[in-house]
Design a protein that fits this description.
The chain is globular and about 60 Å long. A hairpin with a 4-residue loop joins strand 14 and strand 15. The model has no long low-confidence stretch (mean pLDDT about 95). The chain contains 13 helices and 19 strands. Helix 1 packs parallel to helix 5 and helix 2 crosses helix 9.
């Protein structure tokens, strides 16, 4: 049965939900608060659990056209660049999990989903910031700060870590600062010395810090992200700020010469203060009545498992699957959303917990760091691979 679905938020999760639900036969209206389309940020890693969804949506070729396909992950010690472990990607990942491991520019991924959602028939509107949500047993109404209200049978809150929908649904306060900062930059590979260019994913682990670099845009650009424990002054939501290489190098401490050169290569850095929430405790935190949450609105997480975008994409796919079983627009809509939440919350909570755990391991000091490095040398790929994650579907 086709129902009217309202979606708050036009990021990766919201557009994926619009695409999947429209493909499922539902009438979708998406509202984005920004005055124009776009996606801040730099790179996104998409493991097999995410890339196989694009095949389901008929977008596998288009995703491949905008992505890079790294051959391996190499983990190194930050202070001297010594290799600790490697994990094969490329054909090994495809053979093991039935789908590729890609790295993409966030803006390219957003543009792909935007075009696909439009082509599927979703109605997409800009400059519509939510002021109030009113849900009843029969419908959901959304009022905006400007413009006419919208009414539908289901509302999906995909409006990010500062979700207005979550605020009115759960009344559980703001996302919390983690004490971690992310410095992000993009560099054209042609502008780098040959020794700094890369087709692969590289990770350097240090004391209370680590750096990740990988190719995007078919390998033409290198995405570099440095994570440091520290507080950034300013308002919590003023999260996109200008930064500079000297302050980043000072925060990293002692680093290998090649890594120091890579950090100094970008002409500009952007700085994010990372926020998250405690891991989900139950399905009621993802859906109540005719309102469901998706992506960062439901389960913001540290980026230390590279699964933030993937979890939002999985949410979108599972939501569409749950809505397929809808037989009637009455209580059936709420039941479909509850089925979605029941299928998703435990997996998302597990990823949230693992991301936090990885942060502690990546930034370890003293005996914990020595134990980590020894384990990486001895176990290598067996320690880096995450079968329960990459094998898992949307549920």
């Amino acid at each position: 049965m086709s129902v009217q679905v309202l979606i708050a938020g036009g990021g990766i999760g919201g557009l994926a939900a619009a695409l999947a639900l429209t493909r499922g036969g539902h009438r979708v209206r998406l509202f984005e608060q920004a005055p124009q389309w776009g996606e801040l940020g730099a790179g996104v890693q998409l493991g097999p659990n995410a890339t196989r969804l694009f095949a389901d949506w008929g977008l596998a070729t288009r995703l491949k056209d905008i992505a890079a396909a790294p051959c391996q992950v190499t983990v190194r010690r930050m202070k001297d660049g010594a290799a600790l472990a490697r994990m094969r990607l490329g054909e090994t990942m495809r053979a093991r999990y039935g789908a590729p491991y890609f790295t993409v520019h966030r803006g390219d991924l957003h543009a792909l989903l935007l075009q696909a959602a439009r082509s599927a028939g979703a109605a997409l509107q800009l400059d519509r910031r939510i002021a109030q949500v009113e849900a009843s047993a029969e419908s959901v109404q959304v009022r905006f700060e400007a413009g006419e209200p919208a009414e539908g049978e289901v509302l999906v809150g995909a409006d990010g870590v500062w979700s207005r929908v979550r605020e009115q649904l759960l009344h559980d306060g703001m996302a919390l600062p983690t004490g971690h900062l992310a410095y992000r930059a993009m560099v054209p590979q042609t502008g780098l010395p040959a020794t700094l260019r890369s087709r692969d994913v590289a990770v350097w682990l240090g004391a209370k810090a680590h750096v990740v670099a990988y190719p995007v845009r078919r390998g033409e650009w290198l995405n570099v992200v440095a994570f440091i424990e520290g507080e950034r002054p300013g308002a919590a939501q003023d999260w996109d700020q200008q930064a500079h290489s000297p302050e980043l190098l000072a925060g990293l401490g002692r680093v290998a010469p090649d890594l120091a050169a890579l950090v100094q290569a970008p002409s500009a850095w952007r700085l994010w203060s990372l926020h998250d929430r405690p891991p989900l405790q139950g399905a009621a935190q993802m859906a109540r009545g005719r309102v469901a949450l998706l992506g960062d609105a439901a389960h913001p997480m540290l980026p230390y498992l590279a699964q933030g975008a993937a979890m939002a994409l999985e949410d979108a796919a599972e939501l569409a699957t749950a809505m397929k079983s809808l037989q009637r627009p009455g209580d059936g809509a709420a039941a479909a959303l509850q089925a979605y939440a029941q299928r998703r919350w435990a997996r998302c909570a597990r990823v949230q917990r693992r991301a936090r755990r990885n942060g502690a391991i990546f930034h370890a000091m003293g005996p914990v760091r020595w134990s980590r490095d020894l384990s990486l040398r001895l176990l290598g790929e067996r320690l880096l691979d995450v079968p329960w994650l990459y094998e898992g579907g949307a549920g």
